[in-house]
Structures are given as C-alpha cells and as structure tokens.
Amino acid sequence: QVQLVQSGGGRVQPGGSLRLSCAASGFTFKNYYMTWHRQAPGKERELVASISTNGGQTNYADSVKGRFTISRDNAKNTVTLQMDSLKSEDTAVYYCNTKALGFDYWGQGTQVTVSS
User: How far apart are CA 35 and CA 25, in angstroms?
Assistant: First the structure.
C-alpha cells in the first residue's frame, strides 16, 4: 500500500533552518509529482511547494519563495523540504502529499514551530 512517512521538523528560533523528509513506498515514485502542504492553527491547509517527476520543475507559495527548497531523490524515493530563514508565521503542521494511482495520499504530518 502507498505510504508516505515523514521525518524532521521540530522547534527553531526565527531565522533558523529545518529540514523535512518524506519517504515514499507502494507506488512508482519517479512517475508522480510530489508536494508539501502546511496547516496552521485555525487556518486552512495550504500548498507550500511542488516538484515535478524528474525534479526539473519546482513551484512555491509566494510566502516561502526564496526561503524554502523542495527536492527529490528518485533513487531513494524521498522528497525533502529545506526551510531556511524561518519566520514565526511558518509555524504549522507540514504534510507531504502525492496524487498517485487515482488517490490523494498524505504523510502523517510534522510539527514545525518557529519561536524565540
């Protein structure tokens, strides 16, 4: 079955960095776009970044452009979100996602807290 298992995250001071990883299994990873989303308390889940099948095309929400970097390793079936220059407003639960085999799949979620 399709599984997306996240790791990383935690608590960091403003201006710091964190790295999120998502290990995929149960589908042909290299054939599908991957995305990262986040949901802050009291807010709707929002798309943060996306990456094409070969990693050649990436897109970012305006709020994270220039600070976050999405990447993938098709040999290891992983997608990563490098988050730099973090701000308090980046505090949220982060989810990796793919639309594979006709369904929407989500990781378990990872808390990222940016606070001094």
Answer: 15
